[in-house]
Design brief:
Layout (H helix, E strand, L loop, with lengths): L5 H18 L5 E3 L8 H9 L3 E5 L5 H14 L5 E5 L5 H10 L4 E5 L7 H7 L3 E5 L3 H10 L3 E5 L5 E2 L5 H12 L5 E4 L5 H9 L4 E4 L13 H9 L5 E3 L12 E4 L2 H18 L5 H9 L5 H6 L24 H20 L1
Parallel strand pairs: 1-2, 1-9, 2-3, 3-4, 4-5, 5-6, 6-8, 8-9
Antiparallel strand pairs: 7-11, 10-11
Helix pairs in contact: 1-13, 2-3, 3-4, 8-13, 10-11
The structure holds flavin mononucleotide (FMN).
């Protein structure tokens, strides 16, 4: 960090104090869980660098999660979290695995927490972090006892909602930031934006895309190269072309797989028109189209037919570098912005 900018550094650490106290980290920056990407190496490196890493459980079995948590704990003594998808059929067992390892923070993603899950996590002594898609749901989650919230805009990589980060932040921070720590996510690539959201009342931020090209990240070299080459406009949301066939929007880099998906939707819609397929079967065909596609891109390196989930901040990812350098750069930019702002 810039040694001469003590004013900015001091302002930044004061603004991050609440988020750091909540996470137990040195900086209030979370590396959002990314399926296949956020495993032991990236998570431990993030926490060792002073930030807060989060394991992406995704579709892992309880046994696999158990091994991943143990392996991460072997690589870092710093706190890290575990992200669980609420639709996972073994959610209860996964919560129990986290509890057995004394995981301090559980992030519930992919929908509202099912009955009993908040209580089960809290009973283990862990803190619960949820995603709040709207102000009304944020208030409801706070009433249900969540310890912190993430608000994530549609600039983000992966599954997205319809509203931008800047609008969510303006709508929600003034109403809820005094009640629980709120972490802002989606489209953050530089520290100036972090400073801005902290000024608006955020306790911290969550970034995903910016960390994919960390040296410590195990993603395939093709996946990282695709990030380094891409610009913001290459990170597009998947499009639904037929009202009968729902598509959950996912932001990913444009590739052949995306085009084939559009063609697939047309073909299935035509079969529906011709009564050649039942509605439920047609919808399943669409739902299952991307099954395994993220793994294909991240692990196997098939960036043409796999799903290269990436946010619009991908244009600000220009090289592979150690995660500690990324954090240091973000913190310097944020501190410089805070000094400049008050001048
Ligand atoms: C490749 C990739 C995979 C992701 N997988 C998950 C996931 O499994 N669970 C989740 O809650 N969020 C997931 N996300 C979202 C991130 O955790 C994070 O919130 C998001 O990347 C923040 O926005 P940004 O990409 O603009 O920084 C994923 C994002 C990416 C880019």
């Amino acid at each position: 960090m810039n040694e001469t900018n003590t004013v900015g550094v001091d302002r930044l650490s004061r603004r991050m104090e609440r988020g750091c106290a909540f996470l137990g980290s040195k900086v209030a920056i979370m590396a959002g869980a990314m399926s296949w990407v956020s495993e032991r190496n990236l998570v431990a490196a993030m926490s060792n660098a002073g930030g807060f890493g989060v394991i992406a459980c995704g579709a892992m079995t309880p046994a696999l999660l158990d091994a991943e948590i143990a392996a991460t704990q072997a690589l870092t003594e710093r706190p890290f979290g575990v992200n669980l998808i609420t639709m996972h059929p073994q959610l209860e067992e996964l919560i129990a695995v986290c509890a057995r390892h004394g995981v301090g923070h559980v992030v519930l993603a992919g929908g509202l927490p099912p009955k009993g899950s908040l209580e089960a996590i809290k009973a283990s002594g862990a803190k619960v972090i949820c995603f709040a898609p709207t102000l009304a749901l944020a208030k409801k989650l706070i009433r249900s006892g969540v310890d912190a919230l993430v608000i994530e805009g549609m600039e983000a990589g992966g599954h997205i909602g319809p509203v931008s980060t800047s609008v969510l932040a303006q709508e929600m921070l003034p109403e809820i930031a005094d009640k629980v720590p709120v972490f802002v996510a989606g489209g953050i690539g530089r520290g100036e934006a972090i400073a801005g959201y902290l000024d608006m009342g955020a306790a911290g931020v969550q970034l995903g895309t910016r960390f994919v090209c960390a040296t410590e990240c195990v993603a395939h070299p093709n996946f990282k190269r695709a990030f380094i080459r891409a610009s913001a406009r290459d990170a597009v949301a998947s499009v639904q072309i037929d009202p009968r066939l729902p598509v959950i929007p996912v932001r990913a880099l444009k590739n052949a797989g995306g085009e084939l998906f559009t063609a697939k939707q047309r073909e299935v819609a035509q079969r529906l028109d011709e009564n050649a397929v039942a509605m439920a079967e047609a919808q399943l065909e669409i739902e299952h189209y991307w099954a395994g596609a993220l793994r294909r891109a991240v692990i196997d390196g098939d960036v043409e037919h796999g799903s290269v989930m990436a946010g619009q901040s991908v244009g600000m990812v220009t090289r592979e570098e150690p995660i500690a350098d990324i954090i240091a750069q973000l913190m310097t930019e944020a501190a410089d912005a805070l000094r400049a702002r008050a001048a």
